[in-house]
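Known limitations

Structure tokens in this collection are predictions and should be treated as such. Users comparing against experimental data should check residue numbering before alignment. To illustrate the layout, the record for beta-N-acetylhexosaminidase is reproduced below. The input appears on top and the generated tokens appear beneath it.
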Amino acid sequence: MNKKTPCTLLATLPLAFSLGLTLSGCEQLGNRVDNASATTAPIVLHHASQQDINEIAATLEVKYRVISNVATDKCNATLAEGACFEAELSLTAKTAIAANNWAIQFSSIMPVQSSNSNEFTIAHINGSVQKISLSENFSGFKAGETKRIAFRASHWMLSEHDALPNYLVTAPSLQARVITSTQTTIDPETNLEVIPFIEPFTDERKQFKRNADDKTAWLTSESLYQRNLEGAANSVPSTKLIASAIIPTPKSLHVDPLHARVDISKGLYIDFTNVAKKDVNAAIARLATLGVKQGKEGFPLTLNINADTTKPLGSYQLLVGKKSISIVGVDSNGVFNGLQSLASLYTVGQHTLPVVTVSDEPHYAFRGMLVDVARNFHSKEFILSLLEQMAAYKLNKLHLHLGDDEGWRLEIPSLPELTDIASKRCFDEQEQTCLSSQLGAGVDTNSPVNGYYSVSDYQEILQAATARHIQVIPSLDMPGHSRAAVKAMNARYNKYQALGDEAKAQQYLLDDFNDKTQYSSVQFYDDNTINVCLESSYDFVLEVMTQVKKIHSDAGQPLTRYHIGADETAGAWLESPVCKDFIASNEVGVTKMSELGAYFIERVAGILTSLDIETAGWSDGLSHTRNENMPDFVQANAWDVLSWNGHEKVHEVVNRGWQVVVSSPDALYFDLPYEASPKEHGFYWASRHVNTEKIFQFMPDNLPAHAEIWVDQQETTYIADDTKTARSKGKPFLGIQGQLWSETTRSDEIAEHKVFPRLLALAERAWHLPEWALPYNYQGAVYSQDTHYFTEAMAKTRDQKWRLFSTTLGQKEFAKLELADVDYRLPTVGAVVEQGMLIANIAFSGLGIEYQLVDASGAVQAWQVYTKPVNVSAAQVNVRSRSVNGARAGRTTNIVVH
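Generated tokens:
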């Protein structure tokens, strides 16, 4: 038996990595191992030409493999608290590569710490951008040869969808090209993006868990079957209950005890009385889309406004009688909401309505949804469609995140550089024509991830929102998360400097060019923070806000609230000469660098007040300010993770007297995955799974109580002590908001997948206070899974209500989403094979289930419809869900038959 030398062991890099071996001194052994039969004649290298770059991009095969997420002593102990993952890139040349002096630029959510290769080096450049460079030992590629680069990056990679696409081949003075093998494709069954170069995860312990203490279980078909079964054990709602269900659940609903129904097959004949048609036309149009049209022969419907100051805005009464329908709202929004409840009563394809009496009002005044279009752009059409569905389920605030590090998405006519340059990403190392290709954007400035809303586009969005009683709250993040604006204004500076106009060059500059501070933002940028000591920074804010206010006014929706973000970067400005002089002057009471961020927020809030605009921001940045320097009204979005004692910070902010919008990521970040599986799309820093049921379970009024029913990011229990930070009585929350961040949400289709159906559960919690929710204890309490303030009876009622809610979605609401062309996420199917019998279930009754048999040889049979347990004879059974209209399939999972 041949003995293996240390160099030979490098043929299996995972083992070599664990032993701490490197390729140094092994004379390109990795290449010989992968290509034992290749000729040993050396390749004569030459400087890369454009043709070389084009051919490398077209023919280089890239594969990405996660080796382990479990940190070792090889991780950099000073970074990411010592956490890192090990991965491997393999590069296979389909044709020989004799070119030299080229590089590969790629994006990674986490920065690379170190790499092991004799021929390549990897370095973190900025943000998500990493660069693979050729070392002096690079020997070229023979045809068919594979070279491997092992590397370590900070934190973890627990999802296959963390891999970012569009690796670039670059060389000095040549055009960068996207490596074809790293481009995304679209799954024709699910309509979702596929990343073909990531190797599927197979090792739960090393690839799916952070460390030995991580108790997260990889959700399989079998475990999902058990979870669905537990939900089904509750009383199954009757057909009559589903028929009379309204989402979101009204405060009071009484169904005719004889279960009478009225015929609306001829549509509705509407008497508007004192209601302006323009205020309700959008709801009437939606009814028509669902199949309920207007006509003189239709069933009588009377609309009326009866002002009642004792009721919240948007309240209404709906009476479906045997001879007529009546909707009375306290305002036009209330009438609009009543019409949407009428639409919710309706079942697509049926032409009758139950006889009901509804009295309804919202639990929260603020019922919001944030969409981040800055990181990756989302089209005007997507936003218009989202507004339609928000209105359908009585959400009333669209927080539109228009500016961040990776993009500026709103035209400001007086500052064209903001969209000429900062609305697109490509390969321009000087960033004078576009921003750098962050987040795998590629080089095509016409890619859907690039773009902006023109003034007319944005005004169309505003007008659509107004017609649906939705307020648009724009956000252009500052002073941190501002790289797009900083780089655009730098380009503006260069333009006017070249023209010899020093005053214009300096007018809106956001950067102190003499600032040598080294810092890193939470997304690993070292240049993304507005310099808060420059007067030109405040001139910029005033100019932008004046312009945005005019755009809103011209569209008929006045700008009354603006979200400044209030994010800052710790450690910024420390070596800025401008800031040192600013502090030395002590003109405004700022005596140290740590106070600069709060000063900026206070001053910007003052600018907004002068424009008659209310201030909103994220709670962490706002909490650094001094109350006496802030306006009377402040909206604070509280986003702290509950298992990190997040309730303490939320209560601290609301106790200041500010209007708190609960934005807890544990339940309200829709960029997080639905389920704990590496196949699921989304980040997982706050939770490994945020499915629709979890949002339904959320009790926003009692944040610490979730320690009794939920677990932390590693699926371990936690304790929430609310005895020292209890919320003061008489300080309710203003509302709640769902968040769709878009770092890896690269298309409208993925955005819809992430938002729906979670948006419906968000609407349920924003509008309706359930009887099963645990009231908040203003005296304070300690909560854990050993305490039982949330009783078994509460849990039983909650689960029964969930069953009604989920069944109503599956049997009534999903069909309506499909008519609106909304690609909601189709759930994975739970399934087991017991004694040769396939038994399957699904979270939303009403969706189809399909199965497919695979024999021992790998031969695959055609998909079949599952309706009841069926005998199967196969080595493996695949299962998937099917949409109501049959047009789409869900993600396939499988059961290995033992």
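For this record: The domain at 366-790 is CATH 3.20.20.80 (TIM Barrel). The chain has four domains: 6-207, 216-243+791-898, 252-360, 366-790. Please report discrepancies through the issue tracker.
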